[in-house]
Amino acid sequence: MSIDVIIEGIGVWAPALPGWQASQDVLTGKAEPQAAGSARPAASLLAPAERRRAPDSVLFALEVAQQAAQMAARDGRTLRGVFASDHGDLAINDYLCATLTQAPEQLSPTRFHNSVHNAPAGYWAIATGCMASTTALSAGDYTFAAGLLEAALLARSEDASVLFVACDLPACGPLADVVSCRTPFAVALVMSPQRDRGGAALRLVSQAAPSCPALAPEPALLHAVHSDNPVARSLPLLVALARGEGQTFTLQAGPRLYLELEISPWLN
Amino acid sequence: MPARILPLAITAYTATCAAARGLDAISEAVRERRSGLRENDLADHPLACFIGRVAVLEETRLPAAFAHHDARNNRLAWLGLNQDGFLDTARALRDRYGAGRIALVLGTSTSSIGETETAYRNLDADGRFAPEQRRAVHQPHSLGMFVQDVLGLDGPCLSIATACSSSAKVFASAERLLRAGIVDAAIVGGVDTLCGSVLYGFNSLGLVAPQACRPFDIARCGLSLGEAAGFAILERGGGANAHVDKSTPCLVGYGESSDAHHMSAPHPHGLGAQLAIEDALSRAGIGPADVDYINLHGTATPQNDAVEAALITRLFPLTALASSTKGWTGHTLGAAGIVEAVMTLLALERGLVPGTLNLETPDPACGPQIMIDNRERAISFALSNSFGFGGNNCCLAFARGQAA
């Protein structure tokens, strides 16, 4: 069974990839990646008070969500939301676990409610006034592919535009012993079931065995920087979108599950 | 409003909670009004409150082949899978459809973070994880990975984590996967366990009651946390599958929405919750007057119950029955959706509609719908409400077999 959607908007925030507009030359190999650490994103959608309270997982997710919605020229209130993250906010988990060993009664209520996996979805809904459905999911190493499938299915079955956000952040504290993620990576796509504006057609086919190869890891430097972040598995799709050409490749979506992605040239 | 969906047959289901393990024992606990709540006796988390603890978890061990998944949450998942013959039924389902044609969609709020807390309590001299804790359990998808491993499934596998609506939303994701033909069946469920993060976290928000929770009571003062596991199998019904009996209960609708209001407080007028309920009714092709029973979110926090009681009074006829079953189970967070779906399915199939345990004097916001006592009544359509932090709402609509 195939699922067809139109990708209308893209957002990205990671070291060397500070926003979609600024990243396309890097993704197509026309410019050298500046691998220096990126600043925290502005996430200007958030009111100043909320921005102060919001954890990094929320800032990264809202930054890319806002980029993608703007590029698609879609009002955030009209978008259903799918937020994917393998680990959620590791800094908050580190804080919770460390505080519980020392002074559990002093746990911060704000950091506790920010610890839910759907915190970025909740802040997004509050910031945009969106009352449509939002979800938050994790699928381990396959989180990006699982979220992409969920989002595309939602767009088709609800006949509605969907915001898909995937984000993972560096591990910190003792958790870094068991979580390999060392760099942040956030990506967002706005997708619709039909074409009524510019975009690239994406066809997803779920398969038990790969029908075509995975894309070669390029640009090599980006892959080297981001190989430990499960959301960076979006890089082949981002490269294809930046090139604006048709491309077909495979993304692993489970231990024995694959997604074939057929991306069309970008049409304005 | 969304279009009507084809009903999906729920060909097997089970739950394990503080009150009881397995369907017959849960029915008995409901009939006898026997709560699973007790004074907190967790040695690692000595907060003065009541909890819904599943008593045998401390002694439960995973089979050797799955020992690397060990965590309280995965032990509870294992215990839950072993009730009502669910493990064998799930394996037979795999033989019928093939491992790649079955989706696994599970809800959890905290997954195995209790094990991460344990690792932090036992760091080595250099402040690092002890060797036995360097495992893949320290992530939200730990539950999904464990159950996928146990059941040997190869289809789409996700852990949905939207706080207290998590394992209600699994039904919606599964319906979409089935409708699109990505899979032929889905195993859904949810597991959440007691841990320091939630006990002290809800305590920090002032939401934990010192005594057993009293949903919708005028004197209610907060929730009691609990732990639970539940699972269900969804298959196409309506003649698409000859082996599915007409008397099998069905998922007939679901609604999902966001409050867009506050991270940890409900919308004051329940607007997001109302959208989810109306969406579920629309997908089911029924109206409020058709609803016989509503299993409420009913956490016993002052705000949730006031908003939800007013919403039920406003939306449903006076003859509808409504109750919160959290007096039996405690608030099982990411497992609440599946546990209360099971409570709702039991009411549909067995004609015993649970009342509200520990409710003595209803809040003035309550209409006559909200019941104190159990009722024996044959019912056809029922809803189950689940609302989570981040303003994340889900409502499920179920029907007795012949009614779908």
Question: If you had to describe this structure to a student in words, what would you say it looks like?
Answer:
The complex is a heterodimer of chains A (268) and B (404). Chain A has 268 residues and is an alpha+beta fold. In chain A, 34% of the residues lie in helices and 24% in strands. Chain A is globular and about 55 Å long. Chain A starts with a strand and ends in a 5-residue tail after the last strand. Chain B has eleven helices and 15 strands. Chain B has helices spanning 23-31, 72-81, 86-97, 113-121, 142-151, 166-179, 196-204, 271-284, 302-315, 326-329, 336-350, and strands at residues 8-17, 38-39, 50-52, 102-107, 157-160, 185-192, 225-226, 228-236, 250-258, 293-295, 321-323, 352-353, 375-376, 381-388, 392-399. A ten-stranded mixed β-sheet of chain B has the order 5-4-6-8-1-9-15-14-10-11, sandwiched between helices. Chain B has a three-stranded mixed β-sheet with strand order 2-3-7, with no helix packed on it. In chain B, strands 12-13 form a two-stranded antiparallel ribbon. Chain B is globular and about 65 Å long. The mean pLDDT of chain B is 97. At the A-B interface, helix 4, helix 5, helix 6, strand 4 and helix 7 of A face helix 4, helix 5, strand 5, helix 6 and helix 7 of B.
Please supply descriptive tags for the structure shown above.
heterodimer; A: 268 residues; alpha+beta; Peroxisomal Thiolase, Chain A, domain 1; 9-stranded mixed sheet; 9 helices; 24% strand; globular; B: 404 residues; alpha/beta; 10-stranded mixed sheet; 3-stranded mixed sheet; 11 helices; 30% helix
Can you give me a brief rundown of this structure?
Chain A has 268 residues and is α+β, with helices and mostly antiparallel strands. Chain A is 34% helix and 24% strand. In chain A, strands 1, 2, 3, 4, 5, 6, 7, 8 and 9 form a nine-stranded mixed β-sheet that branches.
